[in-house]
Amino acid sequence: MIWSILNMVEIFQLQLHKSSAVPLYQQLAEGIEGMITDGVLLANSKLPPIRKTAEHFGVNTVTIVNAYKLLEKKQLVYSRVGSGTFVSPLPVEHIPEPVASRNLRSFESGLSMENAINFTSTSLPNEMFPVDAFKEAFNAVLDREKGGAFRYMDSMGYAPLREQLCRYLMNYGIKTSPENVQIISGAQQGIDIISKAMLRYGDVVFVEKPTFYGAAGAFLSRGGKLIEIPLEEDGMDMVILENFLKLYHPRFIYMMAYYQTPTGISYSMEKKRRLLELAEKYDTYIIEEDDFYDFHYDKEPIVPLKALDYKNRVIYIKSFSKILMPGLRMGLIVLPKKIHQAVMEAKYTTDISTSGFIQRALEYYLREFGWGEHAAQARRYGGEKYRKMLSAARKYLSDVAKYGQPNGGVSLWVELPVGVGAEALCSRMLEKNVILTPGSQYDISGEENRHIRLSFLNLSDDKIEVGLKRIGDMIRAMLEEKFLTLP
Amino acid sequence: MIWSILNMVEIFQLQLHKSSAVPLYQQLAEGIEGMITDGVLLANSKLPPIRKTAEHFGVNTVTIVNAYKLLEKKQLVYSRVGSGTFVSPLPVEHIPEPVASRNLRSFESGLSMENAINFTSTSLPNEMFPVDAFKEAFNAVLDREKGGAFRYMDSMGYAPLREQLCRYLMNYGIKTSPENVQIISGAQQGIDIISKAMLRYGDVVFVEKPTFYGAAGAFLSRGGKLIEIPLEEDGMDMVILENFLKLYHPRFIYMMAYYQTPTGISYSMEKKRRLLELAEKYDTYIIEEDDFYDFHYDKEPIVPLKALDYKNRVIYIKSFSKILMPGLRMGLIVLPKKIHQAVMEAKYTTDISTSGFIQRALEYYLREFGWGEHAAQARRYGGEKYRKMLSAARKYLSDVAKYGQPNGGVSLWVELPVGVGAEALCSRMLEKNVILTPGSQYDISGEENRHIRLSFLNLSDDKIEVGLKRIGDMIRAMLEEKFLTLP
Fold first, then answer.
1. Which among A86, A89, A131 has the least Cβ separation from residue B203?
2. Sorting pLDDT into bands at 50, 70 and 90, what band is B95?
3. How far apart (Å, rounded) are the C-alpha atoms in residues B403 and A347?
């Protein structure tokens, strides 16, 4: 009933032009067709009654009947005898996509190029993976548990692993207990499950601008409305944030406290505290995604937002894909108590549980090998690559582009000079066998064209040198072309 | 704008009683509060303007102002200066749950009892898992690939595995090619991802009645409307199905072609063909979940719906949890071409990919060990348990309960005598250390109280014997109690 009134409101906004050469019934049908294909009129909802519609537009009922018939012929609507005309579901291939799929496609195609200089990989090179330790762990688990290693597992995760992870989180300044820890198959699943547990159609979500497309895609696919909060050098603009908090009541705010994807920005301690105050004041939650803790190249320790979270406002999602190995598909969420049950159920209907075998192996690894040594190695390695990257950028980019020096993380976020579009640069670099990520991938509208992101963790020093030289040369060439074509 | 009109339509349906002792502003506030907590009024949508509302109800504007103020005090609404009053998002703990969470809870608590006679497990016992073969596979993959085994993986899955799986599917009569195969982390994830790719708020989904709660939960959580089609002994009632297909245009029909969860029913060849005809005629898709192919105890081969699918209407989801090992978290989808891209994107925003390490190990296992021997062993073992189960049921249940003889699968679906409620029986059996699944778990309304499901794959012959005796005794005791308490 409600939906049909909604449809009436929409359809009655159409304007019919009686002086047009296009017959009125066709004008009406075309107008309604547009609303169906744009997803404005919901599947299986009713079109307004023929008489009422004719009255509204001041036309004969035959006009409406013909319009509906035309739509039915195109299979855009269907009729039920005695009860009216209803909107057909869109064909599967025409369902509006919740994700900026263009982005995914280019991302995927980039990955398949061989021997390219690939600035898009954000995880450690294979040689840095603790493969031998995990081989020992897998075998020890199989010898100990036999088939038991492969049974169904509690949806929250393997209890001894959750205990280990609490000890591990203490190193990050995060104090929690196993009943607050949910095991997940990577950070992306964490975001997806939190959305499933908490987001309902029409809810508002605040994200940083720019933000990570994978997260935005998960929110959008749940019917969330995204509001972008601009980033400054030390975190979100808190004035704009509070103004928006007065206007909207977001279900949650999605952010990264340090080495943000894509900008590399870290929040100041002041902004972290302010963010928590505002979440409390306006009664909302914060999703903190933490991918890069161990990649800090400063002496100063960094502090996760969750470590300051005395009011239980932060849902902390930790990935092991960057610091450990992406192929494990492993991560954790630290949950405020209120959402335990909902998240556990969401995990169950998502994939029942994360592989119990891999969970057991990770537990063995953490217990027998500890974390410190691998983390220190990874940090040392990341720091070397970072300094190599900076020195090459100074040589080849500093005269034509700007970039922050995050002193951590695995990427540089580079602002291009006016006149050089990021999309154009990226596609021309592909011809030079260099793969970069354009800023549009991190922009909900897809319109950003000023930035590129260069991830350096998985490249040899030589490739960093050659890659940045080629990028700098190309930017200069494009600037010159532009100069030459000026009127 | 639209949402505020929708809210007006809803709120103007309220009746205020001027003669009541309860002040009018309070009546109005309570009416609106009910609509907010029931989720009728969407978060962040606008309440109708004060003057218009006052006019509608024939009251002073002060009454409306006071009603809105009361709601604001309760934090159910919030106001924006100059633009009106808006519905607050419900607190997280009050969001209407999409899943029948009661079911999940009892399921989980059942799993934690030790030494119980557990009739809820549907996978093979640990001793039947091919652990040694997988140990070899894991080590071979690590020796061959080193760290490469743990890199990010194409969202569709490991190409050589998808090739292996096509060969494997040929044994089932399913001919397909690797580009139609999507690797998933278990069948439940398959259902979740298909929902993400295809379902939009308001879409209709047809399910069997009764059906699997995990699937229903995934559809509901996407805003799907479920229509239940009753099952007969040889599949859905095709007359009712066609009648509903005339009334609604479902996005898809979810079903299992044999050894259905929970009833154990298999479709006749005639109904399988009819189902495909109807899907084509009414332009919809069928999701076929296949968990139990290899557990057929008859001489006759069984035929998946997908094997008959010449029109590409079937999305075939195959689990490896039952026949292989649940802890692998591995499965596959065979996709019609039209939905490839959408499903790949859904997988990406769900968990990027299934563990590449486990995918590689499964590929090695299939290549080096083949499938035939393990499947034959599992079938032999399942058949023995099934016959043991039937003979014990004949002894202890046949005088008081009815059950089908599916000659396949891993469960019996038992109809209780009138006067013995399934919920009551299940909770009383818990006291006797026997865990069963009540029929309500497979009913969307949760009201079914006539059936229990007994899964036998993971029980010793002794436990089957003792368990069924205890159940039979309890049913008889409950019938006697009922007889004694008759007036």
1. A89
2. low
3. 33
Nearest CA in chain A to B325: A150
- Residue B288 neighbours by CB distance under 10 Å: 26
Q: Determine whether the interchain pair B192/A101 forms a contact, defined as Cβ–Cβ distance below 8 Å.
A: no
Tally the C-alpha atoms within 13 A of residue B292's C-alpha that lie toward its C-beta: 26
Task: State the smallest CA–CA distance between residue A133 and chain B in angstroms.
Answer: 11
What letter represents residue B153's amino acid?
Answer: M
Q: ipTM value of the model?
A: 0.77
Residue B150 in contact with partner chain A when CB distance is under 8 A:
yes
**B258 phi and psi, to 5 degrees?**
-150, 150
Question: Which chain A residue's Cα is nearest to B192?
Answer: A350
Q: Which residues of A touch B128 (CB under 8 A)?
A: 147
The residue with tokens 């865990």 is: B435
pLDDT tens, residue by residue, B105-135: 434 444 445 678 999 888 899 999 999 999 9
SS3 A5: helix
Whether A341 and B101 lie within 8 Å, measured CB to CB? yes
Q: How far is CA A61 from CA A41, A58, A71, A76, A81, in A?
A: 22, 9, 16, 20, 18
User: Chain A within 8 Å of B153 (Cβ-Cβ)?
Assistant: yes
Q: Is the peptide bond before A210 cis (omega within 30 degrees of 0)?
A: yes
Residue ranges of domains in chain B, CATH in brackets: 2-94 (1.10.10.10), 101-122+374-484 (3.90.1150.10), 130-370 (3.40.640.10)
Question: Average pLDDT over chain B, rounded to whole?
Answer: 89
CB pair distance less than 8 Å for A329 and B353: yes
Query: What number of other Cβ atoms are within 10 A of residue B50's Cβ?
Result: 17
